[in-house]
Amino acid sequence: MTTLRIAIATVLFVASAVAAAKESGPPNPAIDMPGYLAVASEAAHYRASRRLSTEEFTSMSQEPGTIVLDARSHEKYTMLHVKGAINLNFADIDVDSLARTLPDKDARILIYCNNNFVNQQQAFPTKMARASLNLSTYIALYTYGYRNVYELGPQLDARASGLELEGAMVALSADRSAR
Q1: What is the pLDDT of residues 141-161, one digit of tens each?
Q2: Contact at 8 Å (CB) between 138 and 111?
Q3: DSSP 101-121
Q4: What is the pTM of this model?
């Protein structure tokens, strides 16, 4: 019954969003707000069962063939990131960059973003919840045909997250501790 309610709510949301998204002004065939809202709704339904606990994220990240993707800027990634993560800045996601960075659309991809971490604003600046990079990244990957995507669910203290982090800030902290 719950699945039916979710499906009905999704259909109603998409229908109302598409109706509301009819654009006026100069046309641009390279921008499709109704299509975006429709795929975002579909991705949201798909994403609901793919949010992971810290333990699940850690376990899956260690399995062969799993890719941990950090879609923050290269600057923030260099400061601090989940150990072993690769970086593809969200602004650079397109057909070519995905083909180079994530050529296997069936590979398991784990994502996380700024809003998964607190107490490290320099490396993980908090965004508004509705503007969370996890949402944009998940929707983008889904739009490009990636379906084996999972997301770190909880918000964690970057200094005591249980996830191993690496980057310039870790090295700087280690240097200070050694003095």
Answers
A1: 999 999 999 999 999 999 998
A2: yes
A3: H---TTS-EEEE-GGGEES-T
A4: 0.84
Tell me the residue type at 90: F
**Which residues share a beta bridge with 86?**
69
The single-letter code of the amino acid at 156 is L
CA distance 137 to 149: 10
CATH hierarchy code of domain 50-178? 3.40.250.10
Residues forming beta bridges with residue 112, ordered by sequence position: 70
For residues 63 and 108, the answer to whether their CB atoms sit within 8 Å is yes
Residue 178 pLDDT grade (very low, low, confident, very high; cuts 50, 70, 90): very low
Residues 92-122 pLDDT 10s: 999 999 999 999 999 999 999 999 999 999 9
| Domain map (residue ranges) of the chain | 1-49, 50-178
- Helix (H) or strand (E) holding 68, with range, is strand 67-70
User: Which residue from 169, 56, 162, 154 is spatially nearest to 120, judged by alpha carbons?
Assistant: 169
